[in-house]
Amino acid sequence: MSAPPLAAPQLPPGVPVVGMVGAGQLARMTQQAAIALGVHLRVLAVGAADCAAGVCSDVRLGGPRDLAAVQDFARGVDVLTFDHEHVPAALVADLERGGVVARPGSHALPYVQDKLQMRQRLAASGFPVPHWAVPRPGHELEDLRAFAADHHWPVVVKAVSGGYDGRGVWVVEDETAAARLVDALADLRWFVETHVAFRREVAVQVARSATGEIRAWPLVQTVQENGICTLVIAPAPQTDPEHAAHARTLAENIAKELDVVGLLAVEMFDTGGDEPFVVNELAMRPHNSGHWTMDGSVTSQFEQHLRAVLGWPLGDTSLRAPVTVMANLLGGSGVEAAAVHSRIPAALADPGVRLHLYNKQVKPGRKIGHVNVCDAEVDAAVQRAGTAVRILRGEDGSR
Amino acid sequence: MSAPPLAAPQLPPGVPVVGMVGAGQLARMTQQAAIALGVHLRVLAVGAADCAAGVCSDVRLGGPRDLAAVQDFARGVDVLTFDHEHVPAALVADLERGGVVARPGSHALPYVQDKLQMRQRLAASGFPVPHWAVPRPGHELEDLRAFAADHHWPVVVKAVSGGYDGRGVWVVEDETAAARLVDALADLRWFVETHVAFRREVAVQVARSATGEIRAWPLVQTVQENGICTLVIAPAPQTDPEHAAHARTLAENIAKELDVVGLLAVEMFDTGGDEPFVVNELAMRPHNSGHWTMDGSVTSQFEQHLRAVLGWPLGDTSLRAPVTVMANLLGGSGVEAAAVHSRIPAALADPGVRLHLYNKQVKPGRKIGHVNVCDAEVDAAVQRAGTAVRILRGEDGSR
Question: Which residues does the annotation say bind ATP (chains A, B) (predicted)?
Fold first, then answer.
């Protein structure tokens, strides 16, 4: 071979090494920020097709629940962090006892791995959450009915762990549906909560550095279809400035209360009332609701996460445009990887479309990319981002 | 090993592969753009310490003048492009005959590899260039003196090939200096040109896609010290709008005239007159004078270069802030890599400082990173960017 592959790059001394467990699109986009900051990103991938593996020089193979693999992976990293919630907090605690610096730490992770602990902790600390109840073993249906009687149908049943993108969440309309669901979930830990009547769904991303410094981005509106986020509008349109400020403070206080280091996404219901926000979900990492920051804010959530876990000062979270809209590109019928790539030139005909493709293996409903569009007007931004995504999906009628 | 290194990532079908010869900071920053666009970037590195090698999954080893190596490297890439000017145009022509798509192509590259050809071609096409003359072999000193007598001292002597960052360029003040230089350059091809009295130095970056589409960024001012660019101010302050428009048109016309595909940097003298611009240097790739685009424009020069060489539509080159200032971080005494990394938190205390570190082996005078600062005012942006660089260099008096 005249141009053989390089075995291993040689870094200058003093380069910080951040190890990220998981090699999905969040790790992939973190690499863009790591390159700018001069941070060396090492990722732990499950397989060669993990999409961050294609863009990093330092990829290790191993499962996120395999203590030996994660231990081996963490050797030599300055900070260990996560692209997902699948590393059990107990495993992280083991690593910490061995001297690994994990951010967020094992004391914070349970609140994103166990939704019941999250509800209990937030409620105990006075944060607004839906009413909820844990059914007694053997009395699940009875307790679910009693809860609905105390509140109202429908109710929401949530798996204690493992849910995301609408999985692990069931809206239960009536007694018949409740009976069916309770049967189906016989082997699962779950709890029930009120179905919050909301005007819209919103989110705040906040970063907390290892130094304690906190910075939040403005409140955004998130639009979900079938439990999957399809659109984010930043900032959330038609928002009372006091409410917007209150939402940021709420998110900052949760980050402090849970001693989060890194990014925290706080997904909330906006009920439209005087105290409009009710906390729905948390994520302790860069999150889909913050992808707009890559083009719409001075500092992206990925850069901020690295700065936070390294204990560096946080970057400016100001807006760079009056409106930024993020639209997700989901896999589906006719949305194979090669077809998507062939449609890029058509999608980029709008010169302001900011494309972010993940190079993931495509599955129906799977997030395989997103576009951001900055504009002066919400409607225009929504329309332009939607058009680009429809073109990439082959739904514009011409391709 | 519990978490063994991954041998090779697996990409989904249809992913475009761009091969970049050279693995310096331009390739490194191109990788950030490639990640977003879903483009697979393969780089040809000279050694394991090349700074793009640390951030790519597909690094091959070989020299840019080694036909077999570049041929092997180019196998399977959709487009071949360059991080520097060191691949001889004749070698690229050989590759093209073998079916490789090189952008810019072998017909365009001579104008950045041979400054005399560049001067001749631009002058023949009516573009403004300094007066110049090629000395006759054996009559070098005589011809240089005659040229100065026809114009004025000082004159500028330029090596026909190989110069950059002030190397290969000599300002000759008088006859004595001329005699010394002519002796010293006995083995080098050179020519002489007038020393243009300029108000300031400026540059325009322009992209030309394989489709023929052209987009330029606004005119910027470049500040050089010892022949090395230290500061770029975008847009160039206090510029007559007609002059600014004229500079863009000039750059666009050169890109067309030379049939450039990819990025073209046109460095010019601004003489302050009615037709103020005189072309100094060209580069056919992303260029230091365009680093400000990473934070100051909707589309960065690195993304634009990829879009251009892939024949995709070009992105919006609008400004994202009233002023963006780029300040280079140069290596020097006390500016070792580890020391620079230890000073990052202090430099980032200004939350609007956008850091770009290359993780290069540090040498005195070598560009090892840059910062961008966006602001409403030129003076403030210059001051903030300068402060960050001084802190990183350990020159702020406290570290």
Answer: 115, 158, 193-196, 201, 280-281
Cβ–Cβ below 8 Å for B313 and A349? yes
CB contact under 8 A, B57 and A54: yes
Instruction: Quote the CA–CA distance of A91 and B143 in Å, as a whole number.
Output: 78
For range B267-296, the mean pLDDT: 97
pLDDT digits (tens, 9 = 90+) for B334-376: 788 889 999 999 999 999 999 999 999 988 889 999 999 999 9
Q: Is the Cβ of B8 closer than 8 Å to some Cβ of chain A?
A: yes
- Domain B17-102: assigned CATH number: 3.40.50.20
pLDDT for B166 beyond 70: no
Strands A132-133 and B228-234: unpaired
The kind and range of the H/E element at B155 are: strand B155-159
Q: Is B226 exposed, middle or buried (0-12, 13-18, 19+ CB in 10 A)?
A: exposed
What's residue B226's pLDDT? 81
Contact A292, A324 (CB under 8 A): yes
pLDDT score, position A163 = 65
A132-133/A59-61 β-pairing: unpaired
Query: Domain residues of chain A, as ranges?
Result: 17-102, 131-194, 200-392
Q: How many alpha carbons lie under 13 Å from residue B23 in its C-beta half-sphere?
A: 30
Q: Which residues contact B312 (CB under 8 A, 6 or more apart)?
A: A344, A345, A348, B209, B306
Give A-chain residues touching B53 at CB under 8 angstroms. 6, 9-10, 57
Q: H helices of chain B, where?
A: 25-37, 67-74, 89-97, 110-113, 115-124, 140-150, 175-184, 241-257, 293-296, 301-309, 337-342, 344-347, 378-392
The CATH H-level superfamily of A131-194 is ATP-grasp fold, A domain (3.30.1490.20)
Partner A contacted by B361 (CB < 8 A): yes
Alpha helices in B310-355 (DSSP H): 337-342, 344-347
pLDDT for B398 beyond 70: no
Q: Does domain A200-392 have CATH number 2.60.120.10?
A: no
